Each structure stands twice: as structure tokens, then as C-alpha cells.
Predict the 3D structure of the following.
Amino acid sequence: MEIKNLLVVGSGLMGSGIGYVSGVGGFQTTIQDIQEESLEKSKKTIEDTLSKGVERNKLTADEAEAALKRIEFTTDLKASAEKADFVIEAVPELQKIKQSVFENLDQYTRPETILATNTSTMSPTEIGSYTTRPEKVIAMHFFNPVPKMKLVEIVKGLETTDETAATVKWVAEKMGKETVRINEFPGFVTSRISSLVGNEAFNMLMEGVGTPEEIDKAIELGLNYPMGPFKLGDLVGLDTRLNNLEYLHKTLGERFRPSPLLIKYVKAGRLGRKTGKGVYDYKDN
């Protein structure tokens, strides 16, 4: 099946990034969300990213203009799904939301359309069970920020065919990404490691081992991480980090029990950059 029209469901940080690399990669791209305000923010984010790409000589002005023309924004899931050859869901990591999205996508898209989920922890087998085409459902895990991060984890469900996985690999490579194929297990590879490091950083902060700045600096310089666990958590969203940990705690056991301090931050609404304050304060940025 030829892939020309790509639909991204969800216009948040990840959805916007996926929409960007899709448009730059040459796909006719639709970004769908239920909120107009979120779509407007997504469009501005993509325009800004394209402008920065031109400034840094990553793209020519003509390439950026052409990419933007390939991307459209809509609140109409049914109409955008009907014309899609390939769908990437990028909604919050909550089972009820993903189930609703995939049940609708299964109803609205053509039977041959591949349905990918940008999940960092959840089972593509379970998500495939929400549809009548589990052989065409797969996890396609992008990383934040999507335009900069090179990796996509590809995770087959129990029924996913090799043909589906091969098509997903081709799509990811057209977007300029490198891929790894991971056997399905909660958290895959990267989320299990990242969740453990981020959670332990919160435990160390709670225990008074060091300040956030000191802990981040130690990890960055001592372990050669490009970004410390608190900076990364604030970027991804502490609520997202907590959701991932709760899922991994439920599926993999005690070592993933969320830090009480992380839970406290989320309850206080300190979710990171998107709220202006997480571990660090971004209100003046």
C-alpha cells in the first residue's frame, strides 16, 4: 500500500513534533485535535520550528514553505481518518482515551490503513484488541523533542504482521529517523530506563542528597547524559512521567513505585514547562 496521507491524532507536544517530521518527510499531513486552541498552538510551534530550521541551515526556505503547505489542522476526526493511509495516535497515556480513539479510528479508516500508537509504555497488543485489525496496529514510540531526537522504537503486538512493521520502518526513515524493533514488554527499552532514573532522582531529592541542579549536573557530566533527569522530566511533563511509572508499577512491580515527592509535585500542578513550573521555574523564560 502506498503511503501518501498521514494523520496525527493529538496536537500536543508530541503530536506537533510528529506532524513536523511528517510534513518535512514529504507526507501530506493532517493534525487532528478536539480543541481549536491546541491546534492553533501546534501550528505556531511548527512554524517556529521550520523558521529555526532555516536559520540553522537544516532546511532551505523553499523546503520549509513546502513542508508547511503539506500540513493541515482539523477538529474533524472522521473526515481526516477517512482519507488517511497511515495514522499515528499521540494522545495522553491513559487507557480510556486511547481505547476511544482506536475504536473510532477502526470505524472511520479504510481496512488497510495502519494504526500506530505513539506510546512509551502501553501494550500494542491491548491497543490492537480495540480494533478489528490487530494485524495492522503497532507501537511507534517517538522521543521528545521529536524534530531533534533520531530514534523511533517499533514494537509489534501479538498479531502485528511483519509487513506492517516493515511499512512503519519505511515511514520512520522517510521522517529522517533511525529505528529499533523491540519485543513487546511494558516500558519497552527506553521508558523503563528513563523512568527508573527519573524516579530515583526524585527519591534522592526527597532524601536531601542534593539540589535539583546538583543532581542534574552529576548525571549530565558523570554519566554523559545530554540532559539531567529533572530537566527531562520537566520537558516531558511530570504528569506523563507519573502516568508511566504508575503503569510500570502495576505491570512490572515494586521497583517502579512512584516517588512520593513526584506524586506531590503533580498534585500541586507543578507539571513542568507546560505549566510554567515543575522541578524548575520557567515563568520568566
